Every structure is written in structure tokens, then in C-alpha cells.
Amino acid sequence: MLNILNFINYFLCIFAVGFYLITVLQWFSYKFERIIFHFTKPLWHIYFLFFPVIIYFASLFTKNGDKFLFVFLVVFYILLILWHKKLDKKLVFTARVKRFFAFLAFFSILIAVSFNLLKADNLPLFSPFILTFLFSYAYEKKEANKFYKMAQKKLANMPDLLIIQITASFGKTSIKNFLFELLKDDFKVQKTPRSVNTLNGIIRDINENLSYDTKIYIAEAGARKNGDIKEITQFLNPQIVLVGEIGAQHIEYFKSIENIRATKLESLSSNRLKHAFLHSTTLLKENETNTIYDKQIANFTANLDGIKLEMKSGEKIFAEILGDFNAQNLAACILIAKFLGINAEKIAKNAKNLHSVEHRLQKIMTNEKFIIDDSFNGNLKGMCASYDLVKNYKSRKVIITPGIVEGTKEMNEILGIKINEIFDLVMITGDLNAEILGAKIDPKKLIFIKDKSKMIEILGAETKADDLILFSNDAPSFI
């Protein structure tokens, strides 16, 4: 017969495991395949998923197992709270998360009551989770379909809206923000917020934020698998498409550059396409409807003051943004602005007011130290370009980096060699690439930071006035 302690243990175990599961699912957009095949902290699954389940079932066959399990779960909750407290990306109690816990509570109570009436000796642990995820995912799919139709109807009621869709392996957000700044004085322009680039994120932005008097909507489109860009393109049907530089970003999902290229080029499937601005890495040829934008650059220089850019069509532009790769991003924006009728003088004037996007080669001067925040730059080419940018700085150069998070061992080895050539002090955050980078960097330069909460303290102790400090990429604690 079941006693009160059995029920308490049952609910404690279910909600502890449920809390862990929904936390990691939220990190990976609620995709089970990603937390199974692409999770870089597998020990967490053992500690917070498998271990409590094993202890739960072991207690069923142990004398006084219910008392032992209760003590274990109290300790487990303390550890779970401490673990969550140290995360830099904690669980956000969105409407979806609240619905998940509501479903979990309902099915847990339903099963517990049912089995008690049946005079069962044990309560099933997996059934509440199976039912919760089945009903939760069905409900979310139904809601997503409803919001999809709402956004679709809204766009249908805005026939004069010009949609510009931007995709690339890297640089999407910078291009989006630069283009917005070049266009905003001449048009009523809206762009997707922050780094929102999924279909659901775009749909939400349209439903909640897109005003009916908007003339141009700039949407960033990202992908983790073949078909993602096509899905966004079929929904938006953009008149202008920009396909930026294609590289090995997210190679672990796509498996090859060819797959990445094919996915990005799904943008060209729009049935309203008027013109496409393409990077040469798309391998497409220029014609009446395609412009290869990086080939339109005549000359440029990039240093810690900014970028001077000269186009083949004669425009001379200066912008206080960093990174030679941003010359190509800026060139794409200039060509689109010209395509939309903005004259060269106005473009040059607006370009002078451009600033680096937050966390993307953003200059910060504080306490007599030159800080460059490039923590949202996570690809090999972009990271190496930022190192070349600072290599001629006269005083000490300090870098804080986890390496390339979504990349290969070979990429991180190349990065490590480059870092060792340029920087005087190297702080490696996290364990993911510590061994690979450490093998390529002079040990006398190295500091390993396992606990990111100690970073400010370590920086204060190890750096001094006139140092240049580069934050190169970042990784949340679950990476």
C-alpha cells in the first residue's frame, strides 16, 4: 500500500526532473534531438536526469526506501537550486514553461490518484512525462499554427509592404542594423529585434510589433537544418533578399559547406523576388536580378578608428565600425539603399552615424583600458579578423575567449595558433575548448577561468592601464 511519503517522493522527483528537462529544452528551442545529440555537458544529464530516476526505482526495492529517497530528494533539490543559481542562462518562466508545469501537475495528480484507487504498490514515474510532452507539444503546435495564420493575414493586409530578408553564416545582425540605419530617414522601417531569426520569432514580431504604416520590414533568417530558410521564405515572400557570406558556422548540424550553401540559397525561392544581393561564396553569377555585392568594392581600409570604403560606382564612405569583414557588410547595405532610391550623398552622411552592433566589435573605454566587446562573434574568419585588427596595438593585448563553440577541432587549433601570435595574456573560459587551445598557446600566457562569475575579479587583478582587452566570442555555462 502507498503511504503519504510515497506520494511526496513521487511529486518531488517528478518536478525536480521536470525542472531540469524544461530548462535544457528551453536552451535548445525545445528540440529533443539537440539535447540528445548536441549537448556539451553530458554529465549534467547523468547528475540531474538519470541519477534521480535510478535512485527512485532503487528505493522501491529497498527496506525503508521511501525514507532514504526523501532524504536524497531534499539534498538533490538543494544541489539543483545551487546549479541553477550559477547558470548565466536561467530558466525563463514564459507562458510555454508555465503551461508545461500545469500539464505536469495535472497528469502527475491524475496518475497518482488513479493508481491509489487501484491499490497499486508503486507509482509510474515516466507516464506523467510522456503525457505532458505529448499534450504540451500538441498544444504548442496548435498555438503556433494559430499565430502563423494571424501573421499571414496581417501581411496580406499590407500589400505595399517591402520585405527584405537577410541570411548568412555570420554577420546577419550587423547587416540588418546597418541597413536599418541607412534607410530609416527615408522610409518607415522596422526590423526584427536583437538576434531573432527563427520562423516563430519572426511571426511573434509581426503579430506583436509590426505597425500597419511600416513601409519596409527587414527580417533576419537563421537555420539549423535544411528547409529552415525555405520555411521562412515561403512565409515572408520577400521582394529583396540578401545572402551573405557562407562558411562553416553550425557545421555540426549541416555536416558540409554544400548543405549550408544550399540552405541559405533557399532564400531565392520567394515568388515575389525582385532582386538578390549575394556574397561571392554563394557561387552564383551576377545577372539582371543578382548582384554579387563584395565584388562591387574598389578599395577599403579598416583599423581601430573605423572603415574607409570606396565602391566601384564611386561612393566613398567612412563609418566608425570595426572589422575588415564589415566592409563587405556595409557594401551590401549601400547597394540595397541605392536600389531603393537613396542617393550617394545621403548614404555617406548616414554611414558616418553608424556604430558597431552591441557585442560585435563594440568599443568601450573604461578605467584607462581599451575594451572591445566581440562576444557575439563566434566564427573562425570573424574572430581571426578581430585579432588582425588589434595586432598593431602598442600596449599589452589581452583576450578572453571560449574558442569556437560550434566548430571543429581543426578550427580551434588554427584559432589557438593565431591567438598565441598576437596576444600577451590569454584567458580561456569554460572547458569546451580549453585543452585544444591550451596545446597551441604559450603556457606562460594562459589563465583558465572555469567559473565565469570570477571573471571580473580576475580581470581586475591581471590587467592594467593601457591594456587592450578583447572579449572574443562567449558561451553560456551550459556550453
Any overview of this molecule?
This protein has 479 residues and is of the alpha/beta class. The chain folds into three domains: 4-142, no CATH class; 158-352, UDP-N-acetylmuramoyl-L-alanine:D-glutamate ligase (3-Layer(aba) Sandwich), CATH 3.40.1190.10; 362-472, Alpha-Beta Complex (Protein-Tyrosine Phosphatase, Chain A). The chain has helices at residues 4-27, 32-37, 42-59, 65-86, 95-117, 126-156, 172-183, 199-209, 228-236, 251-254, 257-264, 325-339, 344-351, 380-390, 409-422, 434-438, 455-462, and strands at residues 162-167, 189-191, 216-220, 240-243, 275-278, 290-292, 297-303, 306-311, 316-319, 362-366, 369-374, 397-401, 425-429, 446-449, 468-472. The strands form three sheets. Strands 2-3-1-4-5-6 form a six-stranded parallel beta sheet, with helices on both faces. β10 (362-366) and β11 (369-374) form a beta hairpin. α1 (4-27) packs antiparallel against α3, α3 runs antiparallel to α4 and α6 crosses α8 (199-209). The chain is globular and about 85 Å long. It starts with a helix and ends in a 7-residue tail after the last strand. 35% of the residues are buried. The mean pLDDT is 93. Keywords: ATP-binding, Ligase, Membrane, Nucleotide-binding, Transmembrane, Transmembrane helix. This is Mur ligase family protein. InterPro entries: Mur-like_cat_sf, Mur_ligase_C_dom_sf, Mur_ligase_cen, MurCDEF_CellWall_CoF430Synth. Pfam families: Mur_ligase_M (PF08245). One of its GO terms (molecular function) is ATP binding.
